[in-house]
Amino acid sequence: MLPHELGTEALRQSMVESLMRVIGLPDDEDTAREADDVLQSLDARLRAEPTAA
Amino acid sequence: MSVTATDNPVLRAVMTHTRAENPSSFLALNTGNDVFTAPDADGVIVYRRTGRYVVQFGGPFTAPESYEALLDRFAGHVRAQGLRLVAVQLQRADADVYARRGYTVNQIGASWAVRLPGFSLRGTRFMQLRNKISRAYRNGLRIQEVAADERHDALAAIDDAWLGSKNGARPLEFLVGQVGGEAQRYRRLFMGSVDGDPVAYISYSPVFGARSGWMHDLSRRVPGGSPGLMEAINAHAIEVFGAEGVEWLHFGFTPFTGLDEGHEVPGYSPAFQWLMHHLWAEGAALYPARTQLAYKQKWAPDTLIPEYVAFDGPASLAGFAHIFRACNAF
């Protein structure tokens, strides 16, 4: 499933897992790119959501 | 404070260009750092390269009129090498400039400080701390301010015992202090001994600017010793600093602490903001922020100083991870 197809909580979980993968493979460009895709998908999702009162 | 004019360009820069009020600026002098300068701009940018990233420590230590030009030249220098720039331990004044220039800037944690005039360990708030300190003294602790170059063997004995207790953990670098090297003459070192055997030390680095004083920096103890060793040494140092009229004792930066929506700057990444809160709650394996903050809060710090990370482009997990890589965390 692509990052933008995930729900917000799944994106958050995926972001944490992505960080751990980057730490495990810090020089792997694909891992870094995929991790940043997740973060940016979550950014887009959170920016689109109304701010909690 | 005994620091005087110097020929070291990094020291001169952090002493002179204090507008950002970075309490950790002395870490710029750590051995292992690289320094960027430009011929037509006073001041320096301090960084380390790790993997495909350049991790910058603090903002440019330069005059306001040179600040943005030096930053732009440095960023261009980084990009020209095909590397990516991430800056850490930016202060609010830095963060505002970086955000305005298109960087993605987020709060990453906070530094903590105590104003020493009027500070006292009297009162019920500090009762547990006083009891712990008393236990250390009852167990034979003696504290002295010492010269590091005269206590090399004692420092090595404490370091070896400390590292041996960490199950193969690597000693952190870059954003933590050092003992020794050319900069040592500007630091102060307090050491505790029991029955003549060195058991713990705390190193203090000078802090410049409006909140000048000392920063409680590198601290280590032998495992299994008396409770209260570090607390007793710091309390002793506070007495010494207080008698000297020192204004501020800083406790330095702890990632993931002091997070507050009100500290964020325009354009911040909400996903990265969530990650910082998550790592505060669940990230002890990455960094023991709660343990670190618990020690700092024993001293009832009255000043929280937000600290920032800036990404050249969108927020990046790889960029964030490389801050820890530059610190030798993995």
TrEMBL record, chain A:
It comes from Streptomyces pini. This is Uncharacterized protein.
TrEMBL record, chain B:
One of its GO terms (molecular function) is aminoacyltransferase activity. GO terms for cellular component: plasma membrane. It is found in: Cell membrane. Keywords: Cell membrane, Membrane, Transmembrane, Transmembrane helix. Pfam families: LPG_synthase_C. Residues 13-311 form the Phosphatidylglycerol lysyltransferase C-terminal domain. Coiled coil: none annotated. It is a multi-pass membrane protein. GO terms for biological process: phospholipid homeostasis. InterPro entries: Acyl_CoA_acyltransferase, LPG_synthase_C, PG_lysyltransferase. It comes from the Bacteria. PANTHER family: PHOSPHATIDYLGLYCEROL LYSYLTRANSFERASE (PTHR34697:SF2). This is Uncharacterized conserved protein. It comes from Streptomyces pini.
